[in-house]
Specification:
Blueprint lengths: L13 H8 L17 H19 L1 H21 L4 E6 L6 E10 L5 E10 L10 H21 L3
Antiparallel strand pairs: 1-2, 2-3
Helix pairs in contact: 1-2, 3-4
């Protein structure tokens, strides 16, 4: 069995919930608007209307929950960031260097990419899997994420 990191959940948000359960836009067949007019189909549609009304009535609470989840996730990522090291070439001088990047969840299911400079590729033998490059990338990313959280820019 492989030792894999669990992926982060998508925070609940009002727009996704209403889109999921509104019959016309739903991507899931079981939540689509029914075509028949029998009693059971009408009951299902009534239950959908009740759900959508409840979502609408509690939109502010759902938005607050999303905000709290995102805040927690951002701070958790800053503590233990998933960092990807990439080799990039500066087109002006053909110098190769390493950058580290990670993704921070944003409102509405979006993600913001955060990049930091790690160093010259030659210092790590041009190997993006170099352990020293990875360690340095994580350290620099943690500092950058903490600073940007304090500034309120992520």
């Amino acid at each position: 069995m492989k030792n894999r990191k669990p992926s982060l959940p998508t925070p609940v948000n009002y727009e996704d919930l209403t889109e999921l359960f509104s019959g016309k836009l739903s991507k899931l067949k079981r939540f689509q608007t029914s075509r028949g007019n029998d009693k059971f189909n009408l009951l299902v549609e009534e239950k959908r209307d009740d759900l959508l009304q409840c979502l609408k009535e509690h939109k502010e609470v759902i938005d607050e929950i999303e905000d709290k989840i995102l805040e927690f996730m951002k701070y958790s990522i800053a503590r233990f960031p998933d960092v990807y090291v990439a080799r990039t070439t500066n087109k002006q001088n053909d110098q190769e260097y390493f950058t580290a990047k990670t993704f921070i969840p944003q409102k509405g299911g979006k993600r913001k990419e955060v990049k930091v400079y790690v160093g010259k590729a030659e210092d790590f033998l041009f190997d993006t899997k170099n352990l020293e490059a990875k360690r340095l990338a994580i350290d620099k990313m943690k500092k950058t994420l903490k600073r940007r959280l304090e500034e309120g820019t992520i």
